[in-house]
Specification:
Elements (H helix, E strand, L loop, with lengths): L2 H10 L5 E5 L6 H16 L3 E6 L17 E2 L4 H10 L2 E5 L11 H6 L3 E6 L10 E4 L6 H11 L8 H14 L10 H13 L3 H9 L4 H12 L2 E3 L4 E6 L1 H6 L10 H6 L6 E8 L4 E8 L5 H8 L3 E2 L3 E6 L3 H12 L3 H6 L2
Helix pairs in contact: 2-5, 2-6, 5-6, 6-7, 6-8
């Protein structure tokens, strides 16, 4: 965070404020970790801060310190409305467009609070008085660490915040294996461990506590795996019927798309997940090398994200979405062949 941005933040936080920290719809590990970490940090500075999420988050994150205090707008609508309308400041973390917060969007657009954005996705919107955006950063959770550092407040790091940020960084870097993981990322992680983040326990809580239903769903997903060798592409489909048969819960499909990407010769992987309640097909895109799934998602599926990890959605049926996707692939045949 540059000196000018830091100066503005310091001025905003000079007096005690009521602050709401907001994450994106369908929050993942980075959203939950960064929001909790920021909220705990702000409270340690003497502010009154609370996290509001548009909807619920996966069970594998519900052990995080303070997660029971997160206000879920979908469940506690009146509470979240009151908090946002009374807020002096609103921090938006791990997203850069208010369209990413679902039913909270209009409420945020109409409120009187000033906004602070902290995010690492591409093409941020211009709605905040402070925009701390860095697409080269591994995660928003790592950015929260640098945010604290820029303010000269790393002494406020406690074991709870260290745990939040470690979890967010770990999940958004695929356990530190994605290209966005830098030497600086590892130095941040080392400091978080020194503060008290228990890496083995965090990994176990997030990755090694699977329900039998989730394992069955993974089996269905792998059975539905399709490979298109000429396009160096693999995809997985999951219908609503298949999800229901495995008692699907939020977060159960986390990481499934990476199985497709791990196949030798595959440079582009997709998972299509039918959501009858929202009448959409959700898609997660992953890639290797310089093939940009962010551009692909933005150009075709009203989505976006990062070069090698992005999301999108389709209003068509599952079968039509897959058929359309395959037809679109034809235009990327040469680019995928040359991707490295």
């Amino acid at each position: 965070m540059d000196k000018e941005t830091t100066a503005v933040v310091k001025q905003l936080l000079k007096s005690k404020k009521k602050i709401v920290v907001v994450g994106h719809k369908n929050p993942d590990g980075d959203a939950v970790g960064s929001c909790l970490g920021m909220s705990f940090f702000l409270n340690q500075l003497g502010h009154k801060s609370i996290v509001v999420m548009p909807n619920d988050f996966p069970d594998f994150l519900k052990w995080l310190p303070g997660c029971e205090d997160i206000v879920i707008h979908e469940k506690d609508t009146d509470v979240s409305i009151g908090l946002i309308n009374e807020a002096d400041l609103i921090f938006t973390l791990d997203f850069n467009s208010l369209s990413r917060v679902g039913e909270l969007q209009q409420l945020l657009e109409d409120c009187d609070a000033k906004f602070v954005m902290v995010d690492h996705h591409q093409a941020p919107d211009d709605y905040a008085v402070v925009t701390y955006s860095d697409v080269a950063m591994s995660s928003t959770s790592e950015m929260v660490y640098h945010f604290m550092d820029a303010l000269g407040e790393l002494d406020a790091l406690c074991v709870e915040v260290a745990t939040h940020l470690y979890t967010g960084i770990m999940t958004d870097t695929g356990s530190f294996r994605f290209p966005s993981t830098t030497a600086t990322t590892h130095r941040v992680i080392a400091h978080l461990m020194e503060i008290g983040a228990n890496n083995a326990e965090i990994h176990q809580q997030v990755y090694d506590t699977n329900s039998a239903d989730r394992m069955k769903l993974l089996g269905v997903a792998l059975k539905n795996l399709n490979i298109i060798p000429e396009y160096h592409t693999a995809y997985i489909t999951l219908s609503q019927k298949e999800l229901d048969a495995c008692n699907f819960r939020k977060g159960d499909t986390e990481g499934f798309v990476n199985y497709a990407l791990s196949i030798a010769g595959i440079k582009f992987a997709v998972i299509f997940i039918e959501n009858k309640q929202e009448s959409i097909v959700k898609m997660s895109f992953r890639s290797k090398g310089d093939f940009s799934v962010n551009d692909f998602a933005r150009n075709h599926y009203n989505g976006g994200g990062h070069i090698n990890a992005a999301g999108g959605r389709s209003l068509a049926s599952l079968s039509k979405t897959v058929t359309e996707f395959i037809s679109i692939l034809h235009g990327y045949k040469e680019e995928l062949a040359n991707a490295s």
